[in-house]
Every structure is written in C-alpha cells, then in structure tokens.
Amino acid sequence: MSGREFSFEINLTSSAPASTLFRLVADGANWSTWAKPIVLQSSWAREGTPAPGGVGAIRKIGAWPVLVQEETTEYEQDRRHAYKLVGPPSPAKDYCGEVVLTPNAAGGTDIRWSGSFVEGVRGTGPFMRAAMGGSVRFFAKKLVQAAERESNR
C-alpha cells in the first residue's frame, strides 16, 4: 500500500433550508427515492443514535449486486453529517465523507460535501479521486434537486 492520501470537495448552493437537505442526506433508507439511477436500493443495515440515521447507523445504498455500506460517524442535526465506508472492500482505503450545511444570507443553504481516502493500490489514487468525486457531485446535485422540489410544494 502506497499510503498516498487523496481528497475532493464539492460546493453547491440550494434554495432549500438546511433542515430539508439534512433530512434527505442523513436518511439512508430513502436514498433510492432521490439518488437514482446510481442508487436503486437503499436501507438500514443498522440504526444509530438518534434513530434511525445517527451515529453508528449503517446505510446500504447502491444497486444489486453492489451495495455500499457507510457508517455515520458524526451527526449534527441540520448542520453536519459525516460517514465512513465500511464495505465492500475498495481500492480507496479508509474513505471518509462529510456533508456540511450552512444557511446563507439569501435564505438558502451552502453545501460542502467532501471526501478523503488513502490510495490502496499504487497508481489508482487519481482515478479513484475522479470517480468518487464525480459520484459525490452527482449525489450533491440530486440532493439539491430533491430538496428544492420538496421546499417548493
């Protein structure tokens, strides 16, 4: 293992309130309602504190046969949701992600979704950063769309 560390950061703004964005991103069982076509299945492998998506919760998201499992490591209601990849094995070792929601002066929310990992196979880090960063950008955009649809009802 080379041990080289890689990271990425996605920044977006939404007109939706932080509470709506947080509820959607922290509710692992319902990702399949807004994160399609990448996430076709979503459920809880384990609930956390507070239930269901708080610290210690493990969400299972993806499409059969690959369901990624991510454990909630930090949960600050309507402000911050941090998680780590717990399965399946990946060339991106020790992957951790964080979504930070900050209300802005326009009445919406600034979103910073970041991730970091250690290159597990020498030479794969740049590719994995591009792939994972692209996936997170996709999820962040879908999150904004879903939250804004809800807020405009």
Give structural notes.
This protein is α+β, with helices and mostly antiparallel strands and 153 residues long. It is built from 2 helices and 7 strands, in the order βαββββββα. It has helices at 18-26, 125-151; strands at 5-14, 41-46, 58-63, 66-76, 80-87, 92-103, 109-119. The longest helix has 27 residues, at 125-151. The protein is globular, with a radius of gyration of 15 Å.
The top-level CATH class of the domain at 5-27 and 73-151 is Alpha Beta
Measured distance between first and last alpha carbons: 50 Å
Mean pLDDT: 95
Q: Kindly name the structural category.
A: alpha+beta
* Uncertain spans: none
InterPro entries: Polyketide_cyclase/dehydratase, START-like_dom_sf
Relevant terms:
153 residues, alpha+beta, Alpha-D-Glucose-1,6-Bisphosphate, Chain A, domain 4, 7-stranded antiparallel sheet, 42% strand, globular
Outline the fold blueprint.
Blueprint: E1 5-14, H1 18-26, E2 41-46, E3 58-63, E4 66-76, E5 80-87, E6 92-103, E7 109-119, H2 125-151
Antiparallel strand pairs: 1-7, 2-3, 3-4, 4-5, 5-6, 6-7
Helix pairs in contact: 1-2
Summarize the structure.
This protein has helices at 18-26, 125-151, and strands spanning 5-14, 41-46, 58-63, 66-76, 80-87, 92-103, 109-119. It is α+β, with helices and mostly antiparallel strands and 153 residues long.
